[in-house]
Design a protein that fits this description.
Elements lengths: L10 H13 L4 H13 L14 H4 L13 H12 L2
Length: 85
């Protein structure tokens, strides 16, 4: 069930938010609802000391598994040595 909500915000913020929503082909109401859902869907078991990862950052996952003993410094040095051979 949808319910109407009235907010008092700075006119500049509203205008910019409407422009952004339009550029994303979404409604401003839909964007605000999505944002509020992410705030309230926070895992109840998560302690305040834990770092919360945003949905955007989660979307950047590649699925590549890196070995635990991977030496990224050695790999980088090897890459540079090969590049500037």
């Amino acid at each position: 069930m949808d319910t109407k909500l009235t907010l008092k915000l700075d006119k500049y913020v509203i205008d910019r938010a409407k422009e952004y929503a339009s550029s994303q082909k979404r409604s401003l109401s839909g964007m605000i609802e999505s944002y509020l859902k992410t705030l309230i869907s926070k895992d109840k078991n998560q302690s305040d000391n834990d770092i919360e990862i945003s949905p955007f950052v989660k979307s950047l996952r590649t699925g590549v598994k890196v070995p635990v003993d991977y030496d990224y410094k050695k790999a980088y040095v090897d890459h540079l040595a090969e590049k500037y051979k």
